[in-house]
Write a structure and sequence with these properties.
about 600 residues; alpha+beta; Beta-Lactamase; 4 domains; 13 helices; rod-shaped
Length: about 600
């Protein structure tokens, strides 16, 4: 609405102020005109009465003097001339019925003219009778002056005039005043609107420019048309807009730099407000939350472990940096929680999560590598040594025993050969010298062939093995032999660690143009402390180092699978809960 705008308010203010001034001025002017007319009429009557008195005194012939006197009077003025008790002359013969000598002598004010020779003026009421006999009172003003020529006798001149004439004059003047006031009001309205528009137009443009700046358009500019305060305000607005654009660009660049730094950091970062709500995270921190959600199924998405919040509470309470450690899904993190200040007040805290799992793994592998290799080689070497000594010492008597011992020696030799070959393959892949024979493969038949290969073994062990695919594309680009080796190893592990009556599911899906292969079982699961090490060489979660149903595991299969996936620019991961099952996930780019 216009009344809520600057134009309406300024316009209404000017109109109200001018209307009040004009109203007061009109009242005063009307009062002045009314008084002025009365005074002018009174003075005119007094002057006319004096002229009549002087005229009569200058003429001895009363009749001639009266003729001169009647000529002096105008149409609205009447005169009564008293020369003695018996002679009263009227300019209007009708006055004979109203004014007689007794009328003047009985009036306390008018009698002073005759008795005391004083000039007097007074308002009187006259009773008029119209042609129909209706009576009405008429207000008039009467002026009386003594007639000095008849000073020794009764002598006076009374002249009167009806106030209706003055009222008509006042009404005419009042109408003129009201007309002038109305014209002045109209002109003031137009002027006020024009002035308000002139004043408010730059303000409206500045308001529109401010909203544009609010929307992020910092290129808008307010035109400066005047050199007054509004013009200076426009100049100040334009300067503010320039500096605001510069500051916003700087903040945007700093935000982008901070985002780039956070996204490329290997450490996870959480930024909390004073209430412990997460405000900023980076990808490693989100991955940490996903692991926490998987570990604790009833956890909220933005909920962090209690250990982190305890450090956060201590930082808010003490204002000092706190350091702690946390273990989750077999991974180890070091937590550093530092306070964030707003001046002297703490406005939150930042938590840095450093994944120390690789360091822990490397330390452990350095200690366990020789023991693992020795363990893997000791058994076949001992068997080779024992059976070969039995042959050389002649302990074996029959041909069948010699053949059986030769088979055992051959199997153990092949086992050592497989171990050496796998070590060589692993070394080549880790050195980047593996050769991949990539080609476009129709995925559905490829997976069906692999699953069909394990159907017999799965049925023998009472395990249900199924395949589920949900793909947009039918063909993918990879080395089929190498990927088959990966899936073979994962399915074989699932069969060996799933009890009779269990289920293993091979799932193939697509996400963001990536191929996702999952091998899901509901078997014994992996202890959380072993999860970080399952892809390391020679590592086995079974501390007794039994080989399950197959009996010939080397502890290198998952390590080789990891390097094959890595050579395809992909990723492999595992999630597991002890006693509930394990999920291995392989992610391959479609054009890897």
């Amino acid at each position: 609405m216009i009344w809520k705008s600057v134009v309406g308010k300024l316009w209404a203010t000017i109109l109200l102020f001018f209307s009040f001034v004009l109203f007061v001025l009109t009242l005063l002017l009307m009062q002045f005109i009314s008084n002025y007319v009365v005074n002018q009429v009174t003075d005119g009557l007094t002057n006319t009465a004096s002229k009549i008195s002087i005229t009569l005194e200058q003429h001895d012939d009363i009749e001639f003097g009266l003729e001169v006197v009647w000529e002096i009077l105008d149409d609205v003025t009447n005169a009564i001339i008293i020369t003695d008790e018996n002679h009263i002359y009227y300019s209007n013969p009708k006055d004979n019925d109203i004014f007689d000598l007794e009328y003047f002598l009985n009036d306390r004010d008018l009698s002073q003219v005759i008795n005391e020779k004083k000039s007097i003026q007074k308002d009187i009421f006259l009773q008029n009778v119209d042609e129909n006999g209706n009576k009405s009172n008429q207000e008039a003003i009467i002026v009386g002056v003594p007639l000095d020529k008849f000073s020794n006798q009764i002598g006076a001149v009374y002249i009167y005039q009806s106030l209706d004439v003055m009222r008509e004059t006042s009404k005419s003047i009042t109408k003129l005043i009201f007309a002038a006031a109305f014209i002045a009001f109209i002109l003031t309205t137009v002027f006020a609107f024009f002035l308000s528009t002139r004043i408010s137009a730059p303000l409206i443009r500045m308001k529109e420019a401010a909203f544009e700046v609010q929307r992020g358009n910092f290129d808008i500019k307010v035109p400066v048309l005047t050199n007054d305060e509004i013009g200076q305000l426009g100049i100040a607005f334009n300067e503010m807009r320039k500096k605001l654009r510069i500051n916003m660009n700087d903040l945007k660049q700093e935000k982008e730099q901070l985002k780039s730094v956070l996204s490329t950091m290997a450490d996870g970062v959480f930024m909390f407000d004073t209430h412990g709500h997460i405000k900023v995270t980076n990808p490693p921190a989100k991955a940490f939350l996903h692991l926490w959600n998987y570990e604790k199924e009833d956890a909220l998405f933005n909920e962090v472990p209690i250990a982190v919040m305890e450090l956060f509470d201590e930082v808010i309470r003490s204002g000092k940096e706190q350091v702690g450690e946390i273990e989750l899904q077999g991974r180890h993190w070091t937590m550093i929680v530092s306070p964030l200040y707003n001046g002297s007040d703490i406005r939150g805290a930042v938590t840095v999560l450093r994944d120390m799992t690789e360091e822990r793994i490397m330390d452990k592998l350095r200690k366990d590598f020789l023991a693992n290799v020795s363990h893997e080689l000791r058994t076949p070497i001992s068997m080779l040594q024992g059976y070969s000594e039995a042959l050389t010492d002649g302990v074996v008597q029959s041909e069948e025993e010699r053949i059986e011992i030769a088979k055992i020696i051959n199997e153990e030799s092949q086992r050592i050969g497989r171990l050496v070959n796998e070590l060589l393959d692993l070394a080549r892949m880790e050195s980047g010298f593996s050769n991949l024979n990539k080609q476009w493969i129709s995925l559905q038949p490829f997976l069906e062939k692999i699953v069909k290969k394990f159907n017999g073994l799965a049925k023998e062990n009472g395990i249900e093995l199924t395949l589920s695919t949900e793909l947009k594309n039918e063909e993918f680009y990879f080395d089929p032999d190498r990927i088959e080796q990966v899936l073979t190893n994962l399915i074989d592990n699932g069969i060996r660690h799933t009890s009779s009556g269990g289920k293993i599911q091979v799932v193939a899906t697509e996400e963001q143009n990536n191929l996702i292969l999952e091998v899901i079982d509901n078997g014994s699961g992996i202890p959380s402390e072993d999860i970080p090490f399952v892809f390391e060489r020679f590592y086995k979660a079974d501390k007794a180092r039994t080989r399950g149903r197959s009996g010939n595991g080397t502890g290198l299969g998952l390590s080789i699978a990891k390097n094959i996936v890595k050579s395809h620019s992909g990723q492999i991961g595992v999630k597991s809960k002890l006693g509930q099952g394990t999920t291995f996930t392989v992610v391959l780019p479609r054009n890897s």
